[in-house]
Design goal:
This protein is an all-alpha fold. Helices cover 91% and strands 0% of the residues. The protein has helices spanning 4-31, 33-53.
């Protein structure tokens, strides 16, 4: 019976680490949204340049 508290601590630790990772990735993803829009704009400009070159 002495091993059960260790297992519970390990599960809680894994859950806490998962929450921290999720928090960091959501913050990181919310900061990069404007960059994604810029890359879409660049892609549209590049594709229109290819049409003009033909």
């Amino acid at each position: 019976m002495g091993a059960k508290p260790d297992i519970i601590k390990a599960i809680v630790l894994i859950f806490a680490v998962g929450l921290v990772i999720t928090g960091f990735t959501s913050i990181h993803a919310s900061e990069e949204k404007p960059r994604a829009q810029e890359s879409v704009t660049v892609g549209v400009v590049q594709s229109s340049d290819n049409l003009l070159n033909r």
